[in-house]
Structures are given as C-alpha cells and as structure tokens.
Amino acid sequence: MALPRGVARTGDMDIPARELENHDLIACKKKGFKKISNLKKNGFKKISTNMLEQSVVESLGNQLRLGAQMGAGASSLEGSEGWGQTSLGDMPESCVAPVLLYLDPPEICLVARLNRAFRGAASADCVWATKLPANYRYLAALAAAADDDSSSDGSVEGNGRCSSSVATKKEKYARLCRPTPFDRGTKEFWIQKSKGGLCMSISSKALAITGIDDRRYWSHLTTDESRFHSVAYLQQIWWLEVAGEIDFCFPAGSYSLLFRLHLGRPHKRMGRRVYDSELIYGWDIKPTRFQLSTSDGQHTTSDYHLDGPGHWILYHVGDFVISSSDELTKLKFSMMQIDCTHTKGGLCVDSVFIYPKDHQPEECIRK
C-alpha cells in the first residue's frame, strides 16, 4: 500500500505530508540509514523526495515484516548493506509510524514488542486510522449501543467498550474485531483482524421461512455448531422458501453473500458427532435456486443441487459492489425449491454470511 500523496492522516485531521517527510527523512539520515545514498550511487541521480521516502519506508517495512515473522529482536533487524552500526532500535518514533502503514494489523502488533519507539508508534492514531473501515464511526456507534445494552443487562463488565469518545483508534479497531450483535441479537458484524474488512452473519431466526411455525415441517435445534447456537431444521416439506433482507451501511468494496447449510440432523452419540443420513431426501432431483438483489439494481441468481451430507457448506449466492460507505444499502436474498412434484427433508439452515469478496472462509464453498 503506497503512502498518500501530499496528505497524511493524523487522527481525524488532514495535515501536509511534506512536514512529516522532511522530519522523518532527516531523522533517518542522522541515525545512519544509508539506503538513500545507495540508491543515488546506483544511478538514480534525479529522484524526488516522495520517491526517496517511499523507498526508505518500503525497505524498512520489509525488514520489519521479516523480523516480525522470524521473531527477531530490534538488535538483529539491520540491513544487509549500507546500514552501518545503527539498528532499527535507534529510529525515532516519528520515523517508525510511516513505516507501520505498510504492515497489516497483526504485524504491527508483533513489531510493537521490539522497543519503546515501536510500541509508541504502533499505538498512534495516524497508523490505525488507515486500517479502520471508511465508515468506522457508524460501526463504532452500533458497537457502543450493543455494549450499552449488554452492560445494562449485566452480561459484560465493560472491558473493550467502544462507547468512550476518548478511545484510541487502535482500541476502536480491537473492539470492532469482536462480533457486535444487533437487531435483537439475530445479526452480528465484525471486521477481519488481518485486513479490516467487514463481515456479517444473519441468523435463521432473522429469515422469513415458509411454514416455520408448523411443527410438522420445521423445528429449531439448539447446537454449538452455530455462532447463534440455534438452527432451523426441516423435517419434510413440498415448498421450500427462505428469504431475508437487511439495510446497512457497508464500507465501499466488493462482497460475497453465502448461505450456510447442512444436510442431515447433526447430534452426538457416544461422544462422537453423527448425523441422520436416512432422513435426507429430495435434494438431488431438482436444483435449489439462490437469489440476491440490491437497492441500486444489482441482481444475481445461482442454482445448486444441495449435497455434502454431514458437512456445513457455504453456498455462494453472488457478489455485490458497494460504491459509497455513507449510504444505506438494502440487500434482499433468498433460497427456494418450489417444485411440488416431490418432497424434501433433512436440511439445517444456520445463517447467511456476508464476506469481503477476496476473503476465503475456512468452510467448504460451493460456487
């Protein structure tokens, strides 16, 4: 990730990047970092201050990333050529912060262990402001409301709360990495620890399921295999229709929507996980149709024969793109198998997941 040209983010303020460049480059040169002179000796006679800074920062970022992965101390993180006798431990905090912009959050937390300067820079708002989602204030407000509700119920002690107006951006990032329930606990969102991308899960209890109140067809099962500890189980039915919708301010980007399903009723027998395969039928005759649409006109349809009995499988419905982080987007999604020439049964509906498009969940995905 390249540094922004001409402007640097510090807290909630935009300041000229030139002030940071001059100070940091001078500090780096005084501390014995010769990378710039090496570039000039190798034929780069005409090179701008921005290019010099970016070269230094990228080089240091690579050194830090390698050191963090190897668990090296500050004294061992010296360049292979031209670094003299000075180690990264001698860098001023103001020179460290621009380097950390090139690292992912877990790497920032690792290099924070090197010394006091790195620890201070790793907590700076200007570093974590670049890692937070663009609409983090909206997400933080939802997290604060959830924390307040939990606190009033006496279910949490208040650690890691997001409601304080003086919380640092690092603390806000850490809080948003924890799941935040909303809509009476039937939905959750969180951000990825590694990249800060928004993820969401929508419980089966938040979905409109045809016949859900008729015990001849559906029942709710308590299970620890769901993040909501409950799934909807279909005994048998002629007409399957499951639908849901949500209004939310998603950070700009591309997302995938998936249904998490399981063929067979999972349970424990003699301490082992098993499922009832004889109660699974009707899913191999006709495909199940999945649909997704957005309020700005995006639409996608996918057809799958449900398979993989005994395993939780994520069925990829489709992708959608969010262009603005500040606008509510309505999503509508559904799955249906309405061929009434045969019955079907033995299906668990857990939830609907929304992930950044480039994120690969651990569970098996059907595409």
From TrEMBL:
User: Which Pfam family would be a valid example here?
Assistant: PP2
Would you say which domain of life the source belongs to?
Eukaryota
- Give the PROSITE patterns listed for this entry: FBOX
* InterPro entries, sorted: F-box-like_dom_sf, F-box_dom, PP2-like
Name this polypeptide is given = Uncharacterized protein
